[in-house]
Structures are given as C-alpha cells and as structure tokens.
Design brief:
The complex is a heterodimer of chains A (892) and B (229). Chain A has 26 helices and 25 strands. Chain A has 892 residues and is an alpha/beta fold. In chain A, the strands form six sheets. Chain A has a six-stranded parallel sheet with strand order 3-2-6-7-1-8, with helices on both faces. In chain A, strand 17 and strand 18 form a beta hairpin. Chain A starts with 7 loop residues before the first helix and ends in a 12-residue tail after the last strand. With 229 residues, chain B is of the alpha/beta class. In chain B, 39% of the residues are buried. Classes of the chains: A alpha/beta (892), B alpha/beta (229). At the A-B interface, helix 23, strand 19, helix 24 and helix 25 of A face helix 6 and helix 8 of B.
Chain lengths: 892, 229
C-alpha cells in the first residue's frame, strides 16, 4: 500500500494545515532526558539571540531553581509579571495567561511545559496555556523532560521507579514545529549535580541516590534520543508524502486498542499508541459497552473514561459501541475496519477462578488472523465485580429473603403432608421447584440463603433417617449440589435479565427524551424556546441546564428568564468553551473549579452557543451514559439554534433586498425629481443674470415664475421625504388634539391656493361634524397631498370635490377628482412608496399617497381608492372617533 | 411703505441675511444685520428699531430667551423665523411675547405683509383701537357691537369675548393658550376644543365660506389671528 502521489484531498488537507500553521504561533520545544541538562539555559540563550535580532521577545515564566547562570541570562529580557494565586493559605506565583495574551509578544518563553497550574487557573496544565498562546498566534519556546511525555509514562516508571504525575500529551510534541534535543552525557550530568549546579547540595545528594543513577540517566537519554529520532522520521515521511516520494512499506498498519473498565486501562492506550507510532500506522481506541460494563466498580469506570480521554489527547480515533458480546463485536468491528493489530488487556483473576474466559483468551481462541498484543494488567478488576444496585425500598434484602424462605416453607409443609405417600426423590423435586421459584423472584443473595435453607430442611425432615442431619444415601449429596447450583444460576440469570431490563428502560427513557426534544426543537421558533426544551429534557438526568447564545456583539447571553442566574466566572468559562469549541468547566481539564460543565454548541465550524449543565449535588463526574446523552442533547440544541440563525439571516436578507430595492427607487426618483427643478431654477436664474435688462419684462416675469414654482416643487418634495423618513423611522409622534376637520381643510386649501387656482373646488363638510382627535399638522398634510394628487392627475381645470361625513363611529373624508382614474387592479398599488402611474404625468416621487396611508394608519384609520361609476378617482379615508367626547364648554 | 423704518435682523445664516437684505432694501427699510443674539440684543437696545426679525435657531442663545429679554424692557414688535415642524418653538416664542412668526421657506410678499402689520403696531403703541375692521366685519369694542356689511350680528357672550380678544390685537397671532386664558380663564388654557367649536360658530356668522376663512385665520398648530383691516 504505497501512495505514489498525494490525492487532491490529501493535498487540500495539507494546504489547510499549512494555513492553520501560518496563523498559529510556532512552537519550539527544548527536550531533555532529565532535569539539569541545560534546557532552560539553551532556551534563554536562543531567546537572547532572537532579542538581539530585534524580535519582540518576552519571558512568560522561567524557573531558575536558584541557578545563577540561568538567572544571569534573564537579565535584559522583558519578564512578564506573574499572577498571584491564593491556595490553601499560601500564595503561588503562576504564569499569567491573560496578561501574556494581552501583551502578545512575537516570541514568548514559557518554561516547564509539563507544569500543573494552581487550582483556580483557567487550565489544569501549562501545555493547555501554551496551546492557547499558539492559537493566538504567539510563538512559544518551552522546555520538556522526556519523562513527562504521556506515552512514555509507564516506561519511565519502570526504569526509574518514579511515576510521573505531570504529563504532556504526545500530540503537543508532534505539533512542535521544532524540537531541539539538549543532550549531555550521564557522566557530565552527574558531575554537574555534584558541583551543585542543578540542585542545592542537600537536595543534590538525595537526587543522586534516587533518580540520577547512571543506569536511569542512560535509559532516559536513550528514550529522549529515540523520541527525537522518531520526530525527525515523521518529518521526513511528511516531506516525502508532500513531494510524492514513495513511502517505504510499513504504512497501512491499523492498531486497534480494546479498552474496558479497568483502573489501569490507560496503559493499554499508551502501549498501543507506541506500537502504532513505531509502525507508522493508524491507531483506534475501541470500547465495547456491554451490560456488565455498567456494573463495574467506579474506579474501573474512571480508568476507562481516562483511557478514552488519553486516546483523544494522543490523537487516536476513539469509538464506543454497544453490544452484548465483547469478543464477537470486537471481531466484527476489527474485520470491518481492516485492523492489522489488536492490543488487548489481560488480568489474572483474584481467586484464580473465573465464570467465563477473559476476552483476550476468547479472541485468541477464535484465531482471528491479526496480530494480538496482550498486555498484562496488574489488578483483577477488568471484569464483573458487580456493584449491587441499591435495594429498592419496596424490595429490601430482608423482605426478599423472607419471601424466598416462605417458598421453602410452603415446600416443607406440602412435603410433610405427602411424605408418606411420595418418594423422597419426588419431594426433592418439590424443593427444587421452591428453590427455582425463589431464585426467579429474588436476587442471588436471598436465593442462596433459600437454597441452603432448603437443603437443611430437606435433609432434616425428608432424608431418612428423619429429624437428623445424617445422610443415609450418598446420592442425596448430589441432590443438594443440584439444588444449590440451580438456585445460583437461576437467580444470576434473572437478576441479569432484570438489570438489562432496567438499563434498557433507562436507555429507552433517554431515547424518548431525545426524541421528544427533537420534536420540540423542530417547532421552537426562538432561542428561548430552544432553551426551555433543553432544560425540560436534561432535567430528567437530575441536572439543570442553562443555554447561552451569542448576542449581537458576540458575548454570550442568557435569554431564558426562568433559568437560574450565572455569576461572571461561569460566563467566562462559557465564553471560553464557546470560542474554543471544546468542553470546559466542572469535571474537565479547563477551569474545573467552575460549578457548571459547559458544552459548546457548534454546527460544523460555526459555534452557535454554549450549554451549561449544573450537575446534581452528590456526583463527582458524569457517567459515560450521561455524557453521551448530554452530548446528544447539545448537538440537537446546536442544530436547532443554527436553524434559527439561518432562518433569521434569510429574513434579514429579504428585508435588506427590499430596502435595497427601495433605496434604488428612491435614488433614481430623487435624481430625476430633484435635478429637473434644479436645472430649471439654475437655467432661469443664469438667463436673467446674463441678459439682465435686455430681457423683455414679460420674459423676465416668466423666468421668475419658473424659479418660484420649481423651488416650491422641491420644497414639497423635501417635505414629503422628511415626513416619510419620520414615519418610517418611528420618530414621528402623533400629537393628538381636538381638531376641526373644516379648519384643517381650510388650511390645506389656503396652502394650495396657487396650485388649485384653475380648479373649481367644492367642499361639503357638515357644520355638526364631530371634532376629531388627531394631529392637525399631519392631517393637513394628508389633505394637501390628496388635493395635490387630484390637481396633478386630473387635468388643469377639472373640478375637485372634498366631502366629509360621520359614519360608524368614524369620520370619513373623501377627495374626488374627475381625471382618468386608476384601473381597479392598481388601486391598492398606488399607496406603495415610489409608485407612480404612467410616466412623467405627475410630480413628486410617488410618496404622497404612501405618506397619507402612513399617517391615517398612525391614527388607527384606513385609506383606500375608489373608482366612481362616472369616472375619476375618489380617495377615501376614515379616522375613528374617540370613545369619549370632548368635555362640555362652559359659558365664558 | 413709509420711509425710514428701522429693522434689526438677528440671523446667523448668510444666505438668509442676503435674501432679506435684498428684499428689504427695495422696500426702503433700513436693515441692521447681526449674526448673534448678544450683538442683536445690543443693537435692539441701542437703535430702538421699529421691528425685530429673530431667527429662533441661533448659535449662542435660545431664541425664546432673546424674546423674553427684549420684552423685559421694550414693546418693539418681534417677528420670529423658524422652520416648519418646529411649532412648539413658535408657540413658546409667541407665549413669551413675540408678535408674529414666519415659517421657512417664505416669500417676500409674506415678509412685507408681516412687517407692515408690525410697523403699524409700533406706531400705534399698545393702546387698543375702539373700532376694529376686518374685511367687511366691524367690531366696536366700546359699544360691544359687531356688524357685517353694515348689518348687526347677534353673537353669544362667549362668541363676542373670543372675537374681542382677537380684535384687541388685530393682525397678531394669539396662541391657543393666550385666547383660552383671556376668554375662559387660566384653568381652561389647555381645552383647545373650546376654541375649535367657538371658532366654527363664529365663522358661520362672520365668513362668506367657513371652509375658506378670510377673517378668522387659522395659524396651524399655533392659534388664530384676526385679519388686519
């Protein structure tokens, strides 16, 4: 299996990697075999060189351990202030991640990659700080001892007898752009230690005795050299793949690591990972969940969770599948995935006795055809040491035992009654029946008690000689054994069935919960509804949740008023989970002191929110089941939010298109309607200016009339535009006062005196028309616009009629012209903005009627157009009268 | 227009000033131009003009305040200039003692008409005329008699009081509040509907076409005025 040339997909992936790398900061790791080889020293020397080259270098954190040579190197370099962390009464100086991100130097020196941060820091480990620095585009120099590398953890422990607690995932080493091995021979190192250059003298002697033995140092040095070589190897492979040079055979290996509940399961993952790396193969961590897994000890379950997490940290694919038989599923899965090697654990049983063969043996027994690496696990906790489910109150152990014994009692009573008629064998059958029934109805403990009791009772009362425990016939012993094993098998069988049923029920409940969540989310039309649905669903696990969604400025907000309030710290954690799209908070490695566990809600690359889960009071971590359930709920929530976001964007786009259309119409109208009168004014004025007294008085007068008329036209246009803007922007406030329609019509007629001079205008306004509660200026504008419209569209001398009447609790006003009218199908359209009928027949930008409609509607009325049978256009509006009439007027 | 009238213009916009200068120059009015309220107040105090043209949108002082300060010591007619849509400003200026207003944009004819009224008032002083003429209507304030084209009109007490309030300041805009206060008393100064109803009644008796009044003129959003002569 050799790729001659990278596939397009592969090339794309590389390009994307390159891009990501270009935006990320570069990481250089100074790797050493042990403390004291001079990593920090080399690193600082490099940093100084960079500083001398004019680069912006800062020191985030460096531990000099009292070494003067190192301290001297720090002089002249900018050292960032550390953060004080109070922890159990002592003040710790910790690296200030936020300060460093804010300072944002080109190159930051961060010593001791494997350091564990003080509790209360954002990240548990310093390497996570470094990840964040790199993601922010800051280049980082850091140091690492080989013993802190995760995958070498066991090996180092075996060599040195010291288990390292501070570990760094291998993936960060693989991500390093440069790896510099700082190497000295063990003899030199020991000499340095003696001279007190590494530790202060009293510490040095202890260190020499324990850790810095020559054999240890040599072994560690070999590890460091090999790991560096491996890195170089990987770089060569990468280069070869990019350039299309053939890779030597050896690729295509697939290592499957099968993990189960075991406190030591991490060792399997480390071993498998080393194997896969050595083979340059792919690595998959598989966990097959069977009903037994649920009953494993908490320590074993925690080990399993840690192993899966380690797999993820190392960069392996981690898969969990559910099945009833581990060996069968393992085989099927491995075959389907073309696995070449299997890494599996084997532990000796506690008592040297097993109910079933261990999985490793079963797999080997099937001769699977792939290489199997079996790793011995130290403690026999791999499999079923069932944790008894807590007794349900209705069926406590005592009551169950009593019930089981009652069945034996029944058998004894019946047996006594028929002892002389039935043979002893038949009575044995009777007891067997009772034991079986007791087994079916109770758990193994009470069933066993019942079985033993039945043997005693049977022996005492029914095996000759009666009323002694002596057994005359040895074959009865066989009967006893049968009774005992029947009781045990039956009760084991039934209790397992029962547990499976319970598990199935809880699975079903969760599935149903997720299903109903999906249904609710499908109809949720706001983020608040999504939040409510999520809360309802997750509450079934005993936890409470909070959904945060980004506000307009990108900061997370809690929209659900019924959700419990969050303090600022939780919001910070949520923001982190959201922006980094990874879990954070309670029971994670990032900001674990938070009260809530935060799940990022993301669809593809787009983060859409964060889900905070407040765990029920008494738990220390979520079970795998719960995590899976919460993940599923978070996924569904994310999809629902994304759907809302897209719908919202579509809506906004439509509004934008609409307003864009209006803008275009407005611009084209304005450019025509403003320029035409302006051109006329300018033309007329320049003519008068140039010709002066040469112009005939009549001509001058005509030109001046043009200037005045056109200026007025522009005035009207600007007035309408302003009113439109005020109407649309919501600035317009209707100032209602008692108004007389007659007065308002009078004002409008006065204002339009010039325009209407050729038109006979008749008004028909009854003297007893009730007063209106309206904004006088706006109402006047409506009448003015309607009259202008009528005058402009109906021809120079056509008559105009204004009528008003009180009708159905409103005042109805109609303005009618005798022009060409408007076709019935367009009578609604004329109220739209920038709508003009025909071409160039009228003036204005077609805002007049739109403004009328806006004003009338602001008064709670409506306006429409009619076509009277005898021609022309009639525009009618109604304004409702207020419920209360004006107060009576006293005599003055 | 009689010669020698002096007008102080307080206006900060140059184009408006040049327009007014041109318009009034042809009408034989001496115009003193000032760009700020402070300078304007000094000119009004020093020159004792026949009328003041005051733009309400000044950079250094609120126009209403200018009106108030002039009124502290001088009855000189004040005509305020303001844009449409700023009715509240005009009402405030009128209530503060301004005599008349002009809404931008306005024509020369309108400007001269308002100034003519102002000059007449400044000559006449504050003493009310016993006999006021508006079109074909005559109001005899001394005899409390109103005739139209020689025929006596029968007005109710309230109608007469309203008409008399307008007739005491012919040509001057009286705000709703001023009229209500004068006719119905302080407690009724916000009951605009009293005016609407009584003006409609008066118009039915005084006007030829109540829908197009020529004697009782509506000032939109501000108040009413009686046609001057």
């Amino acid at each position: 299996m050799t790729d001659k040339r990278p596939s397009p997909d592969e090339l794309l992936r590389r390009v994307q990697q390159e891009q990501a790398r270009a935006e990320r900061g570069r990481l250089k790791i100074f790797l050493g075999a042990s403390p004291g080889v001079g990593k920090t020293f080399s690193m600082l020397e490099m940093a100084r060189t960079a500083r001398q080259q004019g680069l912006d270098v800062a020191v985030g954190v460096v531990e000099t351990h009292g070494r003067q040579e190192t301290a001297r190197l720090l002089e002249g370099l900018e050292t960032l202030p550390r953060r004080d962390v109070e922890y159990r009464g002592t003040s710790l100086k910790e690296f200030d991640l936020d300060g460093a991100l804010l300072r944002h130097p080109y190159l930051l020196v961060v010593d001791e990659l494997a350091h564990t941060n003080a509790p209360g820091s954002r990240h548990v480990k310093r390497w996570q700080d470094v990840e964040e620095l790199l993601a922010a585009g800051i280049n980082v120099y850091t140091t690492l001892n080989i013993q802190h590398l995760e995958s070498l953890n066991d090996v180092v422990a075996q060599i040195t007898g010291v288990t390292m607690r501070e570990t760094v995932p291998d993936s960060i080493l693989d991500q390093a752009d440069e790896l510099e091995l700082v190497d000295v021979s063990p003899d030199v190192l020991i000499e340095r230690l003696r001279q007190g250059k590494v530790y202060v003298p009293e510490q040095a002697q202890r260190a020499l005795d324990r850790f810095f033995r020559r054999g240890n140092l040599m072994a560690l040095r070999e590890l460091a050299l090999r790991r560096t070589a491996q890195q170089v190897d990987a770089e060569i492979l990468d280069w070869r793949a990019t350039t299309g040079i053939q890779t030597p055979a050896g690729g295509g290996e697939r290592v499957l690591i099968a993990v189960g509940p075991n406190a030591d399961a991490r060792r399997l993952v480390r071993a498998g990972w080393r194997l896969a790396t050595a083979l340059r193969g792919e690595c998959v961590v598989l966990h097959i969940e069977t009903p037994e897994v649920r009953r494993a000890r908490p320590a074993a379950l925690a080990g399993l969770a840690e192993a899966l997490k380690l797999g993820q940290e190392l960069g392996a694919r981690c898969v969990t599948v559910t099945a009833t038989s581990v060996s069968e599923e393992l085989e099927a899965w491995a075959a389907a995935e073309n696995v070449t090697r299997l890494v599996i654990g084997y532990s000796a049983s506690r008592w040297g006795f097993r109910w079933r063969r261990p999985v490793a043996e079963r797999v080997l027994g099937r001769d699977p055809g792939w290489a199997v690496t079996v790793i011995g696990l130290t403690r026999g906790e791999e499999k079923t040491r069932p944790v008894r489910p807590p007794p349900s109150p209705a069926r406590s152990g005592w009551r169950e035992t009593a019930a089981a014994l009652a069945w034996i009692g029944v058998a004894a009573v019946v047996g006594l009654a028929v002892r002389d008629i039935w043979s002893t064998t038949d009575i044995a059958m009777l007891f067997l029946l009772a034991v079986t029934v007791a087994g079916v109805r109770s758990r193994p403990g009470p069933a066993l008690v019942a079985a033993c009791t039945s043997i005693v009772v049977f022996d005492f009362g029914f095996v000759p000689p009666y009323y002694t425990f002596a057994v005359s016939d040895v074959s009865y012993v066989l009967t006893f054994i049968v009774m005992l094993s029947v009781a045990i098998s039956v009760s084991r069988l039934t209790s397992r069935t029962r547990e499976q049923a319970v598990a199935a029920r809880s699975r079903e409940r969760r599935s149903l919960a997720l299903l109903s969540l999906a249904e609710e989310l499908a109809t949720a039309d706001t983020a608040v509804r999504v939040s409510e649905a999520l809360r309802r669903t997750v509450r079934e696990t005993g936890a409470d949740v909070v959904l945060l969604v980004p506000g307009p400025d990108g900061t997370l907000e809690n929209l659900d008023a019924t959700a419990p309030p969050l303090d600022a710290k939780e919001i910070t954690v949520a923001q982190w989970a959201y922006s980094r799209r990874s879990d954070a908070g309670w029971s994670t490695d990032t900001l674990p002191s938070a009260a809530l566990r935060w799940f990022p809600l993301a669809v593809g690359d787009a983060a859409v929110g964060a889900l905070g889960v407040r765990p029920p009071g008494n738990v220390t971590a979520f079970s795998l089941d719960q995590l899976r359930f919460l993940d599923a709920a978070a996924d569904q929530g994310a999809i629902a939010l994304e759907r809302l976001r897209l719908a919202d964007r579509t809506r906004r786009d439509q509004v934008e298109i609409e307003s864009e259309r209006l803008r275009t119409a407005l611009l084209s109208s304005l450019s025509h309607d403003m320029r035409t009168p302006l051109a006329a004014v300018e033309g007329a004025a320049t003519t008068i200016r140039r010709e002066g007294s040469q112009l005939a008085p009549a001509a001058t007068a005509e030109l001046l009339d043009t200037i005045i008329g056109e200026a007025r036209r522009m005035g009207t246009l600007i007035r309408n535009l302003l009113e439109m803007v005020r109407l649309e922007s919501g600035v317009l406030q209707v100032q209602r006062e008692w108004q007389s329609l007659e007065e308002i019509v009078g004002l409008a007629l006065l204002r339009l005196e010039r325009l209407l001079s050729g038109h006979p205008v008749t008004t028909d306004i009854p003297g007893d028309l009730p007063l209106l509660r309206a904004d006088g200026l706006l109402l006047e504008l409506v009448i003015v616009n309607l009259l202008e419209n009528a005058a402009n569209h109906a021809g120079p001398t056509s008559p105009i009629e204004i009528g008003a009447r009180a009708v159905e609790g409103s005042v109805e006003v109609a303005v009618r012209d005798h022009g060409p009218g408007v076709p019935a199908d367009q009578r609604e359209a004329i109220f739209e903005k920038f709508r003009r009928l025909g071409q160039g027949s009228g003036q204005g930008v077609g805002l007049g009627l739109a403004i009328c409609r806006g004003i009338v509607q602001a008064h709670g009325g409506r306006i429409w157009a009619e076509g009277p049978p005898d021609g022309g256009l009639r525009i009618v509006f109604r304004i409702p009268l207020p419920a209360e009439q004006p107060s009576p007027i006293p005599e003055a | 227009m009689p010669a020698g009238h002096l007008v102080v213009l307080i206006e900060d916009e140059a184009p408006m000033r040049s327009f007014l200068r041109a318009a009034l120059g042809a009408s034989n009015v001496t115009l003193v131009e000032t760009g700020t309220a402070r300078e304007g107040l000094a000119q009004v105090a020093g020159r004792k003009p026949d009328a003041v043209l005051l733009d309400l949108g000044l950079p250094d002082m609120d126009g209403i305040e200018v009106v108030r300060r002039i009124r502290e010591w001088s009855p000189v007619p004040i005509i305020v200039i303001s844009a449409r849509g700023r009715e509240a400003d005009k009402v405030a200026a009128l209530d503060a003692g301004a005599d008349d207003y002009l809404t931008k944009p306005f024509g020369v004819d309108e400007l001269l008409a308002r100034l003519r009224v102002a000059f007449r008032h400044s000559q006449r002083g504050d003493t009310p005329q016993p006999l006021v003429t508006a079109g074909d209507v005559e109001i005899d304030l001394a005899a409390m008699r109103v005739t139209r084209a020689g025929t006596e009109l029968h007005l109710t007490r309230t109608e007469y009081r309203l008409l008399a309030a307008l007739a005491r300041h012919p040509g001057k805009v009286l705000t709703h509040r001023q009229l209500l206060r004068e006719v119905w008393g302080l407690q009724s100064e916000s009951q605009v509907h009293y005016l609407r109803v009584y003006m409609a009644q008066l118009r039915r008796k005084l006007e030829r076409d109540p829908a197009r009044p020529s004697i009782l003129i509506t000032e939109a959003g501000l108040g009413y005025r009686l046609r001057d002569a």
